[in-house]
Amino acid sequence: MAAARKARSERVTKETAVTVQVNIDGMGKTSVKTGLSFIDHLVTAIGKHAMVDITLSGKSNDGIVHHLAEDVAISLAQTIDKALGDRAKIARFGYALVPMDEALAYVSIDLVKRQYQKVELKLTRDSIEGVPREDLEHFAKSLVQNLNACTHVLVHYGENDHHKVEAAIKAFAVALRMATAIDSRRKGVPSTKGAM
């Protein structure tokens, strides 16, 4: 029987306190409370579409949106990385092309343990749902920077910034679900090197 792909982490600083639990092999059940409604919505979308159970609570200690958005993303990504363990038997690669109304986003993930990220959300408004644009961009970048993977997140086009961000996050989730899937035919890690 395969080991449970679950993990828990806490990140407590003078700026924030974030606690995360994930189950990679879950049913997409989520409980997310950060005090930032749109960030809660995006994390919930990751859980729902990646089929990862996520319990996350985040609290700001300094009232600065940037710090909370960043630490939520860092904590979530590092907890997923931890739950993946040595990444044996995973599909490793995942990709998705996801529309949301007029917006279209695509994401490609390689769960090799070499960090690289490229994020292009193409946002134009100063804020989306009360969160400054630069903080949403930083949320997305912090998420993929801390996943310990090679990840490309690109919004191809769109007019509504809410739709662009949500399409990108849902594409990330669908690609993550594909990449973390267990391949019953595979033995060990999916690498010609024999190590990730």
Radius of gyration: 16 Å
Beta-strand residue percentage: 25-35%
Identify the overall geometry. globular
Biggest pleated-sheet summary: 4 strands, mixed
Distance between the termini: 22 Å
Strand order of the largest sheet: 1-2-4-3
The CATH architecture can be given as 2-Layer Sandwich
The total of beta strands comes to 10
Order of helix and strand elements from N to C terminus:
EEEHEHEEEEEHEH
The amount of helix comes to 25-40%
Q: What's the domain count?
A: 1
Which CATH class applies here? Answer: Alpha Beta
- At CATH level 3, the topology is Ribosomal Protein S5, domain 2
DSSP summary: helix tally: 4
Helix/strand/pairing class, anyone?
alpha+beta
What ranges have pLDDT less than 50 throughout 5 or more consecutive residues? none
State the fourth-level CATH superfamily: Imidazole glycerol phosphate dehydratase, domain 1
Task: Explain how this protein is built.
- Helix content is 34%, strand content 31%.
- With 196 residues, it is α+β, with helices and mostly antiparallel strands.
- It has a single domain, classed as 2-Layer Sandwich (Ribosomal Protein S5, domain 2).
- Strands 1-2-4-3 form a 4-stranded mixed beta sheet, covered by helices on one side. Strands 5-6-10-7 form a 4-stranded mixed beta sheet, covered by helices on one side.
- Strand 5 and strand 6 form a beta hairpin.
- The radius of gyration is 16 Å and the shape is globular.
